[in-house]
Design a protein that fits this description.
By secondary structure, this protein is mostly helical. It has 6 helices and no strands.
Length: 94
């Protein structure tokens, strides 16, 4: 899928997708991340927080990832919103 196609699917222009992809845009609305993840068929957590192959994790991180996989979609969305708000606040402080 191209940036143009993804932008059209999301109702935004290609430049917005490019800015997200390149990290120029560091803040975004939680709902946008959730919708974007759905269009890309990835989890919102992966999209917002980076790629983490659960098999490469160890110890506590593995346990957290395994528990995440067991949560309902609604619970994941609620947690993701909290994490994204916290990340946005952290970015504002930088």
């Amino acid at each position: 899928m191209t940036q143009q196609e993804l932008g059209e699917a999301m109702g935004v222009d290609q430049q917005r997708i490019q800015k997200l992809e390149t990290g120029v845009t560091k803040t975004y609305k939680e709902r946008f991340v959730i919708d974007l993840a759905g269009k890309l068929d990835v989890s919102p957590a992966w999209l917002a927080l980076g790629e983490e192959d659960i098999e490469k994790l160890s110890g506590e991180a593995f346990d957290v990832a395994r528990m995440w996989d067991q949560l309902s979609a609604e619970s994941r969305s609620k947690i993701l919103i909290i994490v994204l708000k916290d990340r946005e606040e952290s970015l504002k402080k930088e």
